[in-house]
Amino acid sequence: VRLTAAHQSLAFSRRMLLVGGAQVALGGLLVGRLGYLAVSQNEYYKLQAEDNRVQLIIVPPRRGWIVDRHNKPIAINRSDFRIDLIPEQVEDPKRTLQVLAQLLELGPDEVDRIIREMKAARGYKPVQVAENVPYERYAAVTVRLPELPGVQPMRGFSRFYPAGPAVGHLVGYVGAASAAEYEKEKNPLLITPGFKIGKEGLEETLEQRLRGQPGGQRVELTARGKLVRELEPKPDRSGNTVQLSIDAELQEFAARRLGEESGSCVVLDCMTGDILAMVSMPAYDPNSFSDGIGRTEWRLLSEDLRKPLLNKVLNSLYPPGSTIKPMNAIALQAAGIDPAETIHCPGGYALGNRFFRCLGRHGTVNMRRAIAKSCNTYFYAMGNRVGYDRIAPFARQLGLGQKFDLPVVSQSFGTVPDSKWKLARYQKNPKLIERPDWTASDTLNASIGQGWLILNPLQLAVMAGRIASGRDIQPRLLGAHQRPAPLLGLPPEHLDATRGGMWEVVNGDGTAGASRLPLDGIEMCGKTGTAQVRRITGGQRGQSGDWRYRDHGLFVFFAPYVNPRYAGAVVIEHGLGGARAAAPVAKDVLTFLYDRDKAMASLGALETQWGGTLAERNARRSEAVAAAAAAALAQNRV
Amino acid sequence: MILSAIIPQPLAKLPWRLIFLVAGIAGIGIITLFSAAGGSMQPWAAKQGLTFLFFLTVAIGMSWIRESTIKSLVFPAYAAIVVMLVVVEVMGFVGKGAQRWLDLGFIRLQPSEFMKPCIVLVLARFYELLPAGAIRQWRAIWPAALLIGVPWFLILVQPDLGTATMVLLSGLTVMFLAGLPMWLFLGGGGVIAAALPIVYSMMHEYQRKRVLTFLDPESDPLGAGYHITQSKIAIGSGGIWGKGYLQGSQSHLDYLPEGHTDFVFATMVEEWGLVGGILLILAFAAVVRWGMNVARNARSRFAQLSAAGLTATIFFYVTINLMMVMGLAPVVGVPLPLVSWGGSAVMTIMICLGILMALERQQRTKSTLS
């Protein structure tokens, strides 16, 4: 076909139609897209624009208080002074920092940190210069504010624990959020200067209840962070107050009574399970953590042999020694042993050709006498007769080896061994255990609280409490409860026989006769225990020599004998024996519950001996730490 | 009418509808630039107004140029612009850096801007000279491909992806209208689709990043995707009626980058809403319709092809910018003509319109050239 100009003109018209059509289609697409963005996505983009425009300068909420069962404060907030800096508003960063460093006596490390944070800050976010500023320095900065644009003197709040180290392990402490914690939560509140989160203990586990809702100044900002105008401020909401089951005064007394020992003391309400006191000593002062702990203090704490950073109530495990004999008594009766049946103790028990020693020659003993005198021979013989597999269930029923439902960061729950446990453990790692089957000597060791059996002090306190009330108490830290726990279902006569033995330990001619309560009509019942720190080798029996290898002293108790109300456990590490080291603490703590003056008098005498009250000794220690820190700093500078 | 009797003949013969349309669009631009400067004629609105008036005058002046004059100037102009593109490239190479303009002392010339109308005119002239019977032959394709390809490559390596794309699209539109076989375009489209990965691998890092963030702007909301994200927020938050004049938070608080240049449409729509946006699109559509009618009524092949091609240039200018601003195309740096701040785009558009007015005037005059 010959193509002519006419053909060409026709083709042009056709193609023009196509091009015009394409243009209309694209135009339609543009209008459609515009409609989609502006109409159907309008809400979403409105929100985004608002997010851009309005920023919140966060004011951290006040942290909720922690109070005891009588609403006495355990953790509160003290107002303090702080200095912040808004990088965007600073005109001459170098000079401003020079002036601030001089007025606030900032070290070079601090100045470096501020410069770093100023560089990283976006928009209107403030950078902390200093917190806990003494009033005179705060005032010095305030006076010079006109020449320091961007510097913000603020009233802040810092956490304060009136009882100091006495509540250290219980409540933990607060501190600025770490980078990892911020990554996890992505909450801008966490990186707000002056905001602290719970780092340990109840402060950590109750974080969400204590934190509150941040408020702040709402401002309109440009993309570069320049303030355009201030909008309606958003009020903050303080965190909730949390009531504990703890009796703050008892807690503090117990802490002071433990003195310089490394140990722990737990007191429970044996009807409800409320934990009235839970003390581990020595303890760090949570107040020094809430201001940011120094390197020297941290080093001293972590190198201390008495482990002030370890909560010995929950995270230390001990062989319970003779303290579990009352539990054995209940198990033996359930297995059909008559408490009146007697065993002759010649100073030990022969198993095959091995002789298991007793602490003395107790002659003829029944169950009550065996508890009172802590006769190993009786429990060897009876334990061997019924077998440990019939004892272990009662150990568990009474709380041993149990992990309790508590708002704590961690608890070690130890082991209640039996044949099944041993087999499983052997199958898991045969190298650790000689043989898979449960032997009679395993039973004998477990019967006197040695061998595989290891427990924490809280479990011992719960055991004492369950024997005292016969109730299935669960230890509780939050709130004050009145309703007694349900009964365990143990036969009352079994409990009575056991409790009788524990009465005789203190009030008869038993092992803890020296720790009778100095009170009329109120008697303490208990059981002493001594736990070996290492195997008896040669002549050394853990009763002398290096402190680190001395035996632990343990004591479980309840009071009064009639209608028991309180129960607990005391463990004194390397205290040589339960009667000698632990029972006197229990005596004084119980005395405090009934007669404060008498208890304070006896504590006063002791504290004079130790060189001052806990607060005084703590203050002296802080001074020493400060001196050591200064010395370390001086050394570094040289 | 009395009025038409009073108005002098040359003035009455101007295409007033088009001039009002264009002035209206430029007016929207000036109003928006006034807002983008935080409610001030400085630094953009006043200067933009003067630039527009200057180039409008130039365009009206151009409308008296005869078609034959245009035809005679096309090839020399094309050659001159290609030379300038090469010079710019060499200078950039010597000066160690990307450069897009020639500094003549009193004015900075951006040769790639001139290439946008010129590529259309040179192709129109080429197809006019080509015998009607040759349109299905190889010689209808390769000279045209070369005419497009050389400046396209020179502009692409500047690098200016936006302008290169526009030169290519305008040129292809003329080839399409010239009546080249349909299979060429369908097949070419297929080949391009297949070649995209190769092109991608040859791109500059920043261009690649733009493509990637165009496909998923939220993947990098503070980095390269920031422009698109903020632009969509500005447009979307305006709603149907807009936030009100001078009330746009995105533009006034600087969250919208380039709110007075490439993203001026977002600034405008944030304050005037869907209604304002559609109004502006319709105004541009009317300009394009007017240009297409000029092409339809043209009597010579050169007039047909160049009118349609120049209209296509205007169309692509607007469409690529709007697609970019609304997240339908990658950010390639194409301003919205007559509205965005800057003289180059105004100049290009007014050159296109000036030639279109010249062609339209000659349709109405009695004397025919054929």
Shape category of chain A: elongated
CA-atom Rg of chain A in angstroms: 34 Å
Report low-confidence residues of chain B grouped into runs of 5 or more.
none
Major beta-sheet overview of chain A: 5 strands, mixed
Shape of chain B: globular
Query: What's the overall average pLDDT of chain B, rounded?
Result: 88
**Overall mean pLDDT score of chain A?**
88
Specify the helix fraction band of chain A.
Answer: 40-55%
What does the secondary structure layout of this molecule look like, with pairings?
The complex is a heterodimer of chains A (638) and B (370).
Chain A: H1 5-40, H2 42-53, E1 54-59, E2 66-67, E3 73-85, H3 93-104, H4 108-120, E4 127-130, H5 135-143, E5 151-160, H6 168-171, E6 174-175, H7 179-185, E7 197-198, H8 201-205, H9 207-211, E8 215-221, E9 227-230, E10 242-243, H10 248-258, E11 263-269, E12 275-281, H11 286-290, H12 295-303, H13 325-334, E13 343-345, E14 348-351, E15 354-357, E16 363-365, H14 367-373, H15 376-386, H16 392-397, H17 419-428, H18 440-447, H19 457-469, H20 492-507, E17 525-531, E18 552-559, E19 566-572, H21 578-594, H22 596-610, H23 614-637
Parallel strand pairs in A: 2-10
Antiparallel strand pairs in A: 1-8, 2-3, 3-4, 3-5, 6-7, 8-9, 11-12, 11-19, 13-16, 14-15, 17-18, 18-19
Helix pairs in contact in A: 10-21, 12-23, 13-15, 13-20, 14-20, 15-18, 21-22
Chain B: H1 2-6, H2 9-12, H3 16-36, H4 45-62, H5 67-94, E1 102-103, E2 108-109, H6 111-129, H7 142-156, H8 161-177, H9 182-202, H10 205-215, H11 226-238, H12 249-252, H13 264-297, H14 301-325, H15 343-364
Describe the protein's architecture and organization.
Chain A is α+β, with helices and mostly antiparallel strands and 638 residues long. Chain A has 23 helices and 19 strands. In chain A, strand 18 and strand 19 (566-572) form a beta hairpin. In chain A, helix 10 (248-258) runs antiparallel to helix 21, helix 12 (295-303) crosses helix 23 and helix 15 crosses helix 18. The longest helix of chain A has 36 residues, at 5-40. Chain A starts with a helix and ends with a helix. The mean pLDDT of chain A is 88. Chain B has 370 residues and is mainly α. Chain B has helices at 2-6, 9-12, 16-36, 45-62, 67-94, 111-129, 142-156, 161-177, 182-202, 205-215, 226-238, 249-252, 264-297, 301-325, 343-364; strands at residues 102-103, 108-109. In chain B, helix 14 (301-325) packs antiparallel against helix 15 (343-364). The two termini of chain B are 34 Å apart. Chains A and B meet through helix 1 and helix 2 of A and helix 8, helix 11, helix 13 and helix 14 of B.
